[in-house]
UniProtKB/TrEMBL annotation, chain A:
Annotated signal sequence range: none
Record keyword Signal present: no
Organism domain of life: Bacteria
GO molecular function: 4 iron, 4 sulfur cluster binding; metal ion binding
Species name: Caminibacter pacificus
Protein name: NADH-quinone oxidoreductase subunit B
TrEMBL record, chain B:
InterPro entries: ComplexI_Subunit1, NADH_UbQ_OxRdtase_su1/FPO
Segments passing through the bilayer: 6-27, 68-87, 102-119, 140-158, 185-202, 239-257, 263-283, 295-315
Superkingdom to which the source organism belongs: Bacteria
GO cellular component, one term: plasma membrane
Compartments where located: Membrane
Keywords: Membrane, Transmembrane, Transmembrane helix
Pfam families noted in UniProt: NADHdh
Protein name as annotated: NADH-quinone oxidoreductase subunit H
Length: 142, 319
């Protein structure tokens, strides 16, 4: 059981972020020094492969149906990580007419990574915390 | 009888090739990561991935053709397992004693791509439809390249009449010198390298698969759990099969007559083969599909035709 938790697949969804958080997420995948692959993670292109969902951005009215669709497609059990201030509290977009966030209206958020944008180290730390939670969820799911 | 079952299920085919291939895929990820200045996953990473995928929930899309969607991955996997039983391993295994296995090889090399096409098109996803279209276009060209390379080698070994037995091709090179040292085959070797990049879909041919910016996960987008794990294992078998084919075609060197030493030598050659392709993986960016198609139809096809012409000239005694 503990062996399969060393192979999480990550899927990221942008729900109207300003792209700051997405750039920081990209650095964890492909530039030197910050590397989530050493934790065994792999970025996938499909929510159906994913174990950990990374959400950036406040939920805008346009992106809300897609977020709900992606949450529907994830195989259970999965972990949700909110990257940046936006999904947690809508950040600087709070009270705008087009914002339907925050994220925890739609799904239980397991890890919050605060910052605007958060540093890559903080994101990797968030993923490491998500792995612990995923391990516990698998145990409870059986 | 029982020896044949062991050959099919455990030793050169089956379990051995699967384990070796999965390690090679992990090694590929590590080498790419190191070349990019990262740490990379542990060497057993792809094993855990496959084990994990077997433990996940199977999701089937509502509009898919369920039978094709679920069983298409098995087609490619079964084809490669069967081929690893037919094909000889230099100095280690004789092959299944067939005297036209080159033809079977040419057919079977297309089957993993066909299983991708079937699985992707049965999944009813528009992303998969685009990826299937691209895979089909690439396949039409790289199969031709492979056929031309195989045909020129068969002609050269038979001195004008095509030799379709891989064992004979291997023995010819063991008795004479390996074809990798023959300048006439150098264009074909470059073409073969491009063929491997295209059929494994490493960059620059990463147009139909793992191309997140463009088609997400391509034809694999709707697959999860066991079908996805079978696709991963098919990739593992494919890299081993390609390494064996490269060695039979161009350098079936062996050390002495000892099976164990030859096996270790074969594994060492496979490791070098995979590391070379990881290097290419790390240094190339991705083509667009039209660029990839044009490149494939011009460069490797021309290179393999050059080898074919040189071989015909040398058979006629002109060079
Ligand atoms: S948290 Fe900051 S950087 Fe991230 S998406 Fe929101 S505004 Fe942009």
């Amino acid at each position: 059981m503990s062996i399969i938790t060393r192979s999480p697949f990550l899927f990221r969804i942008n729900t109207g972020s300003c792209n700051g958080c997405d750039v920081e997420l990209a650095t964890t995948a492909m530039i030197p020094r910050y590397d989530v692959e050493r934790l065994g993670c792999r970025y996938t292109g499909s929510p159906k492969h994913a174990d950990i969902l990374l959400v950036t951005g406040p939920i805008t009215a346009r992106s809300k149906p897609y977020l709900i669709e992606v949450l529907d497609e994830l195989p259970r059990p999965f972990v949700v990580v909110a990257i940046g201030t936006c999904p947690t509290s809508c950040g600087i977009f709070r009270d705008s007419y087009s914002i339907e966030g925050p994220l925890d209206k739609y799904v239980e958020v397991d890890v919050n990574v605060p910052g605007c944008p958060p540093r890559p180290q903080a994101i990797i730390d968030g993923v490491a915390k998500a792995l612990e939670i995923w391990k516990r969820k698998i145990r409870d799911f059986k | 009888m029982s020896a044949e079952i062991i050959h099919f299920l455990i030793f050169p085919g089956g379990l051995f090739a699967l384990v070796l291939g999965i390690f090679m895929l992990s090694l590929e990820r590590i080498v790419v990561a190191r070349l990019q200045g990262r740490v990379g996953p542990p060497i057993y990473q792809n094993f855990i991935d496959v084990i994990k995928l077997f433990n996940k929930e199977i999701l089937v899309p509502k509009d898919s053709k369920e039978i094709v969607f679920m069983y298409a991955p098995v087609l490619g996997f079964a084809a490669l397992i069967a081929m690893l039983y037919f094909i000889p391993l230099p100095g280690v295994y004789e092959g299944a004693g067939n005297n036209s296995d080159l033809i079977i090889l040419i057919y079977v090399m297309a089957l993993p791509a066909i299983s991708h096409i079937l699985g992707g098109s049965a999944s009813s996803s528009p992303y998969a439809a685009i990826a299937v279209n691209r895979e089909l276009k690439l396949m039409l060209v790289y199969e031709v390249v492979f056929v031309i390379i195989a045909f020129s080698i068969a002609l050269y070994v038979g001195k004008g009449s095509a030799v379709l037995s891989l064992k004979d091709i291997m023995n010819y090179q063991l008795n004479n010198s390996p074809l990798i040292l023959d300048w006439k085959f150098w264009p074909a070797i470059v073409a073969f390298v491009i063929f491997v990049l295209a059929t494994m879909e490493f960059p620059p041919f990463q147009v139909a698969h793992h191309n997140d910016a463009d088609v997400m996960d391509g034809f694999l987008i709707e697959h999860s759990s066991i079908p996805l794990a079978i696709y991963e294992m098919t990739d593992a078998l494919k890299i081993v099969l390609l390494s064996i084919v490269f060695q039979i075609f161009f350098c079936p060197c062996v050390i002495g007559g000892d099976v164990v030493v030859n096996l270790l030598f074969f594994i060492a050659k496979t490791v070098i083969f995979v590391m070379f392709f990881s290097l290419l993986h790390a240094i190339f960016a991705s083509f667009r599909i039209d660029q990839a198609f044009k490149f494939l139809i011009i460069v490797p096809t021309t290179l393999s035709l050059i080898t074919l012409v040189l071989v015909i000239l040398s058979i006629k005694g002109l060079i």
